[in-house]
Design a protein that fits this description.
single chain; 305 residues; alpha/beta; Rossmann fold; 12-stranded mixed β-sheet; 12 strands; 30% helix; Homoserine O-acetyltransferase; homoserine O-succinyltransferase activity; methionine biosynthesis; amino-acid biosynthesis; HST_MetA
Length: 305
């Protein structure tokens, strides 16, 4: 089935070039199907890039998915055209009466701040609490994963001596969970962060389960409430050149940055990336949509509690 996106969203044309089947909302309205309603709270600065990365993965499913984009009122994006934000994003306060089958909350470039210092922290907390009663399953990515675990469960974050930067081998700890259906015994995931959560802090909290981790990059995935909350500290959604863009950006700025680990062919940037995470990234999002959203959400979306 196709992915149902807002009319004129830039990702539509980009993904059509990749032979991914997407339709706009005008065409979708003629189909007599109850689509899954997914809302994305996009906190990343390059919003169009993040939209395209996420939409690419959400499209790899036989389900029809209707995607909406949410933003926080307390933050103005400096890297995305105002016209784009007005056309495709709604403030949380305008969406808070709606219910959604699934939600994705992205990372944000605010790791260097304590949570309470983030200028939109109060609104983020309100959105987190709202999601528990208005969304069937929420996928928290990178900073959002750390922030959600802190808000709900008091799990602290710790600053790293060096940025966790590269593609790291992960191991499923509960391979029989539906989220890992079709996974191999090991898989790879990009990470790009200056902070971490620690296994011992997660395991102290009843109801939290570490379901994937790495000897190098630490806790990768945490599950709570039977899969209604899934926390991912890495970036399964990253496109092949995202880490390369970040690396070259930081080099140009003169920032202290190591070459991303396990990323470039033969560790030579000029040879480009060796993509090792794309297949499992697609599986992760497809399994989440199928087993934790579609299989669990009520047909009457207003019945979500």
């Amino acid at each position: 089935m196709p992915l149902n996106l807002p009319d004129r969203l830039p990702a539509i044309e980009l993904l059509k070039k990749e032979n991914i089947f997407v339709i706009d909302s005008s065409r979708a309205s003629s189909q007599d199907i109850r689509p899954l309603r997914i809302v994305i709270l996009n906190l990343m600065p390059l919003k169009i890039t993040t939209e395209t990365d996420l939409v690419r993965l959400l499209s790899n499913t036989p389900l029809q998915v209707e995607v909406s984009f949410m933003k926080v009122k307390g933050h103005t994006s400096k890297n995305t055209p105002v016209e784009h934000m007005k056309a495709f994003y709604c403030d949380f306060e305008l969406m808070k009466e709606e219910k959604f089958d699934g939600m994705i909350i992205t990372g944000a470039p605010v790791e260097h701040l304590d949570y309470e210092e983030v200028n939109y922290w109060d609104e983020i907390k309100e959105i987190f609490d709202w999601a528990r009663t208005h969304v069937t399953s929420t996928l928290y990515i990178c900073w959002a994963a750390q922030a959600g675990l802190y808000h709900y469960y008091g799990v602290p974050k710790y600053k790293l001596d060096r940025k966790m930067f590269g593609v790291f081998k992960q191991y499923p700890l509960a391979p029989m969970l539906p989220i890992f259906r079709g996974f191999d015994d090991e898989f790879y995931m990009p990470h790009s962060r200056h902070t971490e959560i620690r296994r011992e802090d997660v395991l102290r909290v009843p109801g939290l389960e570490v379901i994937a981790e790495s000897p190098q990059s630490g806790v990768c995935m945490v599950m709570a409430r039977g899969g209604r909350e899934i926390y991912v500290t890495g970036h399964a959604e990253y496109s092949p050149y995202t880490l390369d863009t970040e690396y070259r950006r930081d080099l140009e700025k003169g920032l202290p940055i190591d070459m991303p680990v396990n990323y470039y062919c033969h560790n030579v940037p000029e040879e480009g990336p060796l993509v090792t995470w794309r297949a499992h990234g697609n599986l992760l999002f497809s399994n989440w949509l199928n087993y934790y959203v579609y299989q669990e959400t009520p047909y009457d979306i207003n019945s979500i509690r």
